[in-house]
Write a structure and sequence with these properties.
Blueprint: H1 2-27, H2 42-68, H3 97-113, H4 117-135
Helix pairs in contact: 1-2, 3-4
Length: 148
């Protein structure tokens, strides 16, 4: 996790630096077609600043996690590629729930894009239902895992 938190710290610092440079450059513009001089263009400045805050939140999470766990092989200078071999996790081989999840996200996104409250609501309900189906897929039905 040390590599990840360093990466997000660098990205966070770069975004805050770019926000400051962008605010300065828009305040000192001399091109009349760009906007009024001596006025900061706030949309880009705020977007870059919020991007820095978002990277800062992720950086903080990775920093806290990296202090709580032992160093992983990719964080150690003497780590080898073979140290990371083994089982990564369980991935469902034949699940149809991700397709439903994508479709529900599309419905909710289209509802937000065109500001249709009924479609946003329907997409949100569908997202909740499909997410529950995805999470509990192996707890019910013919694919139930564990003792019968």
């Amino acid at each position: 996790m040390k590599t990840e938190h360093k990466l997000f710290a660098i990205t966070m610092a770069a975004l805050f630096t770019f926000a400051a440079i962008y605010a300065w450059a828009t305040y000192n513009n001399t091109n009349p077609s760009f906007g009024r001089p001596d006025q900061v263009e706030w949309i880009g400045t705020v977007a870059l600043t919020f991007g820095g805050f978002l990277c800062g939140m992720i950086w903080l999470v990775f920093l806290v996690i990296s202090r709580r766990i032992d160093p992983r092989p990719e964080d150690r200078p003497d780590g080898e590629i073979s140290d990371t071999s083994g089982e990564v996790g369980f991935f469902s081989p034949g699940s149809y729930w991700p397709i439903g999840l994508a479709a529900a996200a599309v419905f909710a996104g289209v509802g937000v894009a065109f500001w249709m409250a009924w479609l946003m609501f329907a997409g949100a309900i569908a997202l909740i239902i499909v997410s529950a189906g995805l999470v509990f897929e192996y707890y019910t039905g013919t694919r139930k895992l564990g003792p019968e």
